[in-house]
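Blinded run. Sample ID left blank on purpose so nobody reads anything into the name before looking at the predicted structure. Input follows.
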Amino acid sequence: MPAMPLTTLLRDSRALATLAVPLVLTQLAQVALTTTDTVMMGMLGAAELAAGGLAIVIFNQLRTMGVGLVTSVGNQVAAAAARSETRAAGTEGRPAPEATQAGPETATGEVAAIVRASLVVATLAGLAGAALMLLIGRLLPFLGQESTVADRAQDMLLTLAPGLLPCLWFQAVRQFTVGMRRPQALLQITLASVAVNAGINWVLIHGTWGIPKLGLPGVGVATSLVYLLSFLALYLSARRDPILAPLISLNIAKADRDTVQRLVRLGIPIAATYGSEAGFFSVTTLMAGSFGSAALAAHTAVNQLVYIVFQVAVGLSHAASINVSRELAQDRPAAALRIKNTALACAAAVMALVAVLYTAVPKLVLAPFFDGGAARNSEAISIATHLLLVTMVLQFFDCAQNIGVGLLRGLDDTKSGFRITLIGYWAVGLPSAALLGHAAGLHTLGIWLGLLIGLATTAILLLRRYSSALRTRFAATEPAPAT
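Blinded prediction complete.
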């Protein structure tokens, strides 16, 4: 396919970075919460790291699906604001100064209705997810996990479950601020939450200032408290913003039923897509656990590294998705198609730097998760070091498939992503992981090779779907350039 001109790539990259950079930084700051949890669990020992990692995987599985239910809020808000900008600018396409930031007054009612509806969806998802979390915890002994690991994971899940509700409230308000292209407060709040989380973790785990020593469950209590504080801080920040304040209210009793239903219709396939990916990783975590606590600890540490780098993909995906919604609302399909190549180029550059780091200093990368001098951790460190070699390649495809999901969401095509992930993860990736891990005897390394195969398949199918769907959608009006 013809290469994108360098000047065009640079211009589009700057446009993407305007929204992507604060989102990526926010994601990296947010993942520092779970990284802090993982490091502190590792300080308690390999068994605690294995149990805590298992609990976090379950929490992340349900949290991710809940986030999926409100993710379309950003696209809906962005499209409403973009349509208003187009109407305000007239036929010449010159945005009105006021519309550039918030959209004209005619969009206020539509955006406010979307925000109220998103909080309703977040509340329902949080309550249902917390109940499921506790149920899954009770089933762990029947899923091939060591009894000691399962018992400790259940204790932590009891303290994590209450945090799901404020976590999803935070995500609903977050999507609103991103759709309005005013995400700046997210970074400040998330950075503050990292420090607060570390402090509360230390106090509750070790028991200081008269507070009982909670050990591993203290990590869950700290996480739940931080999610609540983060939501309150973001809400209050939005209320102080003169543009956002008129659009946000906690009075969900006034939510419009049709808007709620529309968000649910769009959100269910997104939640299923996110859940399909998270479930893919959750099942492989259970598979790693079947090889013993050392394998599970190594899997947990490397999975956390992947999760950290994945936040770059999340930021790029959200920014690309919002920009696609805006370009299509303003009838610019060629620009929407270029966004794909720009996002992938940015992702490739970041993943190349990460690969160099994994190759050059693998022990330094893994050091925060293990006590290298402890004999009980030597096996886990050896396994994790080999997994990093697979991860170098895996992370590019992980990033590309997430960008693909975001691009399709910008088209309001939330169903194709789910269908494709079923093929890539479950029909290709999981059987590959089982064959390579068990039948071929590669154990945890084989599981990660299966992850790589599944993610690569998913990425290719998603990106092909986006290009073909965009061309088909606008074939009768404005043919998109070849890519």
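Unblinding after everyone has recorded impressions. Residues 91-106 have pLDDT under 50 and may be disordered.
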